[in-house]
Amino acid sequence: MGDLLNGFADALTPGNLLWAFVGVTIGTAVGVLPGIGPALTVALLLPVTFRLEPAAALIMFAGIYYGGMYGGSTTSILLNTPGESASVATALEGNKMARAGRGAAALATAALGSFVAGTIGTIALSVAAPLVADIAVNFGPPEYVALMAVAFVTVSALLGPSLLKGAAGLVIGATIGLVGIDTQTGQARLAFGLPSLFDGIDVVIVVVALFALGETFAHLIAGTGGSRVEPLRGQPMLSRQDFRRSWPAWLRGTALGFPIGSLPAGGADVPTFLSYSVEKRLSKRPQEFGHGAIEGVAGPEAANNAAAAGVLVPLLTIGLPTSATAAVILTAFQSYGLQPGPQLFSESGDLVWALIASLYIGNVLLLVLNLPLARVWVRLLGIPAYGIYAGVLVFACLGAFAAGGTIADLIVLTVLGLVGLLMREAGVPVAPAVVGLILAPLAEQQLRRALALSEGDWTTLVSSPLTVALWIVVVLALVAPVVLARRRRRVSQTLDETSSTH
Amino acid sequence: MTDIEEGRPLPETPEVAHREARAAGALGVLMVVAAVVVLIDAARLRDSDDALGPAAAPTLLGILLGLLGGALAFQSRRFLRTPGSPGRRLWRLAALVVVLVAFALLLPIMGYVVSSAGLFTAAALLLGAPHPARVAAYGWTLAVVVFLVFDVLIGLSLPTGPWGF
Question: Per the confidence metrics, is the pTM higher than 0.90?
Answer without folding.
Answer: no
